[in-house]
Amino acid sequence: MAVNVANHLDKFEKQNKKSKQFTFTLLKQAIENNPESVQKIISEVLGLKKEEQDDLANLLKQTTLSSVIKSAQIITDRLNFIKGLEQLLFDKETKKLCWKGISFIKFWNKNHGFLEKILL
């Protein structure tokens, strides 16, 4: 594999040992362990504008990628929650169901003692 990489990448031979090891580790990871996810991650990073790549690199100097992922997941969960609330409040069908549920809860709380006697 090393010969193939060297043959196809002119600048590869000029890289220092650490860069070459990184390249081979990246290739190994991409081929052996979870290739679809690694390909998606690398494609997304390579698709970033130079400024965005620099922003990501600077961010990773301050924190770990794992922390960035956890923070992004928290934000995504909160945005999904807000979208759900918007649907409850503004979608006509969901709003009807919601108000029916609220009406039932009010009815139940108001008549709980009476219903309990009848049902039990």
Shape: rod-shaped
Please tally the helical runs, counting DSSP H or I stretches of 4 or more residues.
6
Helical fraction: over 70%
Terminal CA distance reads 76 Å
Q: What is the string of SSEs from the N terminus onward?
A: HHHHHH
Report strand %: under 5%
- Count the beta strands: 0
Largest sheet: none
Radius of gyration: 28 Å
Report what the structure shows.
The model has no long low-confidence stretch (mean pLDDT 78). 86% of the residues lie in helices and 0% in strands. The chain is built from six helices and no strands. It is mostly helical and 120 residues long. Helix 5 (65-90) crosses helix 6 (92-119). The protein starts with a helix and ends with a helix. The chain is rod-shaped, with a radius of gyration of 28 Å.
